[in-house]
Every structure is written in C-alpha cells, then in structure tokens.
Amino acid sequence: MAQSMNMKWFYAAFGVLVVAGAAWIWSSRGGPGAVEVDAIPVTATSFPGWVLGSDSAPVEITEFADFECSACAQFSILTAPDVRKRLVATGRVRLRFRDFPIQGHLYSPIAHQAGACAGEQGKFWEMADLIFFHQTTWVREGRPNKSFEDYAKQLGLNMGQYQSCMKERRHAGDIEASRQAGLQLGVNSTPSFVIGGLLVVGALPYDSIARLVERAEARARK
Q: Is the peptide bond before 48 cis (omega within 30 degrees of 0)?
C-alpha cells in the first residue's frame, strides 16, 4: 500500500513538472507568459544587485528571487549551474541577482541580509548557493541565523564584520530598493527573469533560458 501511494505521488509530481515545463517553453517563445518590459536603469545612486559575468557580455539575465522560495531554490540547484557554465563563463551572458523577499515569508529578510553581508566580503554568490541548497533545512529547523553563521564560517568570512553587518541590518535599504525595482517592472512572484526585454516567471529550465538568450542576441545584432 505504501509503495502504491509513493508511486501516486511520483506520477503526480512528474505531471506537474511536465505541465510547468511546457508552459515555460511556450513563454520562452514569446507566448502569453512573456511580457515586454523596459529595463530600469541602474544609476550610481541605486543598488545594482549582485552581478556575475563580464560587463561586456551582450545579454543580461536579471533574476528577481526570494531565498525562502522553493522554486527559486529549484532554479539555483538544477539550472543555474548550467547557466553559469554555458552562458556566463563563455561571455555570452551577464547574470544579475535582485533581492525580492516575498511578504509573508518569515525568514526571507534574514536570508537576504545574510547574502548581502557575505557580499560585503566578496562571497555573495557562494552564500546564496549555500542558502538555496540547504533551504529545506534552515526553514524546517527555524534557526536561520545559526545556519547562516555556519555558512559564513564555512566560507571563511571575517565573523566580526559579518555579525555586525547582520546586527545593524546594514543592507535593508538595498534589499528594499531591489524589491521596489521589481515591483516597477510588474514582478509579483519569484523567480522572475528579465531577459532581452522580456519578463518571464518561473523556475525556467536551461533550454528555455538559452532560447531567450538567443532571441536577445538576434535582436541585438539587428
């Protein structure tokens, strides 16, 4: 009986993934899930988010994400490594992370502070990876500060600087600025991506990301 119930859950989950994948492939081709947006200019006085890749990359992917969002963790673990290796490392894409903590997520504010405080010491992306990879653990245990301090130690951060940054909530203004930038673009769920002037929503698979990048490259050549 237990095995039968497990298989039912497996097929149900698989069906959800198939439907979601089809929806995002459709949206990556400019379907109803993709919305044209005007990029918000990054000025010297605005927080630009966290950037990975070359300034000369012809295409930028901006991700609005919430550290407590399970779909964001799914993207970070399953898709982001391919994006970084096949698009960012080859110079085709610049990746920009924008904080978008969802109201109602109890631990999101602390998680985004931890990412920013690690970013002070040049370790934002490494901290973000650890937060997403261990998301189910620190959410379930309900002790995010302890978990994030463990990650900071693992990354070799200066703990005095990290702890004072967290205590002062030093980056609260930057985090809110990123959230407001997303709201101006029409972001209302995470993860959301802006790629080549298109706003698309959901944990996109790599192939859908690549198609959107190719579309942006083609438009840039015209």
A: no
Range of 82's domain?
A: 35-221
Please state the domain count of the chain.
1
Q: Give phi and psi for 152, each to the nearest 5.
A: -60, -40
The pLDDT tens digits for 130-140 are 999 999 999 99
Rounded distance, CA 20 to CA 174, Å? 32
Structure tokens at 151: 């990650």
Residue 187 lies in a domain: yes
Q: Is residue 10 assigned to a domain?
A: no
DSSP letter, residue 85 = I
State the pLDDT at residue 37: 64
Token pair, residue 138, equals 């620190």
- The residue type found at 151 is Y
Cα→Cα distances 155→37, 66, 95, 97, 126, Å: 37, 21, 22, 20, 8
Q: Sign of dihedral through CA atoms 195, 196, 200, 206?
A: negative
Q: What is the CATH number of the domain that holds 93?
A: 3.40.30.10
CA distance 148 to 134: 10
